[in-house]
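Researcher: I'm preparing a figure for a lab meeting and need a structural model of a single chain. I don't have an experimental structure, so a prediction will have to do for now. The sequence is pasted below. Please return the structure as tokens so I can convert it later.
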Amino acid sequence: MTQRKATVERNTLETRIRASVDLDGSGQARLNTGVPFLEHMLEQVARHGLIDLEVQAEGDLHIDAHHTVEDIGITLGQAVADAAGDKKGIRRYGHAYVPLDEALSRVVLDFSGRPGLTYTVEYPRARIGEFDVDLVAEFFQGFVNHARVTLHVDNLRGANAHHIAETVFKAFGRALRMALEPDPRLGAEVPSTKGSL
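Model: Understood. Here is the structure written out token by token.
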């Protein structure tokens, strides 16, 4: 399989973002976004997805983190789509259940070429430190729209907001890893009866 790497830059009046991914990495993350909690979550995606990830972001954080978090999701989605290429030989589907103490989340995804997000996560409080928990859904919506994946995110139980978010991002990383892994039985075929994704 060829190298599956990509770098994408996104520059708007609200944000300047550069994201690089290596889908066959070792789980390294180099992050400088101005949003520490998001960086903590992206470290989980890199580590558990075995994806090397680099994100540099400057955004209008003097307003709030909304544009920065959403645009990081968009840029990462574009980078993953570019790195995945024609998707020949990948498993296509991925799923994971991840617990953290009392919290348990499930993430299921399909590199279908069709963006769709079903996000069923309730948090016991509105903020984790300075981070607005509503922005988790915004991150995933941006990712889904630009990676062109179908993504189902469900928190099954949990009482601690940090634990809930962390199980979601860890499960997302593991589901990405599964879906993007080469399928040795598939060879260079596209995993679809349509012949393309």
